Amino acid sequence: MTSTAHGAAMTYQYQYDDLGRLNTINVNGSSIITYGYDTASNIKSIAAMDSDGDGLKDADELAYYNTDPQRPDTDWDTMLDGWEVAHQLQPTVNDAALDADGDGFLNSEESASGTDPQAIPVVYVNGNAAAGGMAGHGRRLSLPSRTRCNTPD
Length: 153
Fold this sequence. Notes:
Layout: E1 2-5, E2 8-16, E3 22-27, E4 30-37, E5 43-48, H1 58-65, H2 81-86, H3 107-113, E6 124-125, E7 128-129, E8 142-143
Parallel strand pairs: 6-8
Antiparallel strand pairs: 1-2, 2-3, 3-4, 4-5, 6-7
C-alpha cells in the first residue's frame, strides 16, 4: 500500500507471522511498529521504534514531522530532531544559526548546553531578578554588589 503525506510518497508493508497475526509494520523499508503476542494470541506488546535514537518514534517522524527516521538530525543543523520538536523549532529547516528567544545564544548553542532556546534567562543581582541576557544563560547567577556611592540628599 502506498500513500502520500507531506508531499512524500510512503510505502507501507505489513508482515504477518505463521499464524496470520500482524507482526510488523514497515514504512519505506523501516520497521516502525512490532507486535508481540501471548499464547492465547492476545497482543502483549507493541514496540514503537526510534531507529535513529533522536527521541521521536519512527511512525511520528513519518506521519507528523516529515523527518527521516534513519537520520537523527534530518536537516543537518547539529540539533537532534526530537530536541527541536520538544523546543518548538523546525527539524526540517536548518535553524541552528537563529536565536529563537533573542538571548544572544544561537539555537545550536542552546542545544549543546542543554538550555531552552525559547526562554530568556533571568540573571540575579544581589538576590533580585535583573535583565535577561547572555550572562545567565538559563542558570541562576548571583553577582556581588558594587560599592555603593553616596548621593547628596
